[in-house]
Amino acid sequence: MSAVEKWQLVSENDYLAREALANQKHEYVAGVVYAMRMTPTKRNLKS
Fold first, then answer.
1. Nearest in space to 28 (alpha carbons), one of 7, 11, 42
2. What is the DSSP string of 1-47?
3. Distance between alpha carbon 5 and the CA centroid of its chain, in Å?
4. What is the pLDDT of residue 29?
5. What value, to the nearest 5°, has the Cα angle with vertex 8 and ends 32 and 1?
6. Does the model's pTM come out above 0.85?
7. Is there a contact between 34 and 26 (Cβ–Cβ < 8 Å)?
8. CA pair distance 20, 14, nearest whole angstrom
């Protein structure tokens, strides 16, 4: 028995439809959707 995970690929249209409603942003890469890490806004700004 193999321990290889099977990925369920997502179409671009499905990704865009879900992303429009999502509270958290995601990244779409070749059919796979990854959650993006949220960082505090102040840390992203340069002085």
1. 11
2. ---PPPP----HHHHHHHHHH-SS-EEEETTEEEEPPP--HHHHS--
3. 18
4. 92
5. 120
6. no
7. yes
8. 10
Kindly report, residue by residue over 3-27, the tens digit of the pLDDT: 667 778 999 999 999 999 988 889 9
How far, in Å, are 2, 24, 42 from residue 39 at the CA level? 37, 11, 9
Residue spans of the domains in the chain: they are 12-44
CA-based nearest residue to 37, from 21, 22, 23, 26: 26
In DSSP terms, 27 is beta-bridged to 34
Q: Which of 36, 25, 32 is nearest to 11 (CA)?
A: 32
Question: What is the model's pLDDT at position 10?
Answer: 92
